[in-house]
Write a structure and sequence with these properties.
about 70 residues; Ubiquitin-like (UB roll); 5 strands
């Protein structure tokens, strides 16, 4: 299935959860904010959120500094 992630088209396997997508890319969910189809997904919903064809993800990573 195809979806848009941070403005780029990606092909991912059917039935993939948001948690699975992040794990496949070695992204730590504790340092991310994820928006799915213009709605911010709470971290406790990442495992229950099944991605669908045509979805649009925006992933923002927290960066510390000073």
């Amino acid at each position: 299935m195809d979806m848009t992630v941070n403005g780029k088209t990606e092909t991912v396997k059917d039935g993939l959860t948001l948690a699975g997508y992040l794990a496949e890319r070695n992204l730590n969910p504790d340092s991310l904010v994820v928006e799915l189809n213009l709605v911010v997904v709470p971290r406790d919903q990442f495992t229950a959120c099944v991605l669908k064809d045509g979805d649009c993800l925006e992933i923002v990573r927290f960066v510390g500094g000073g």
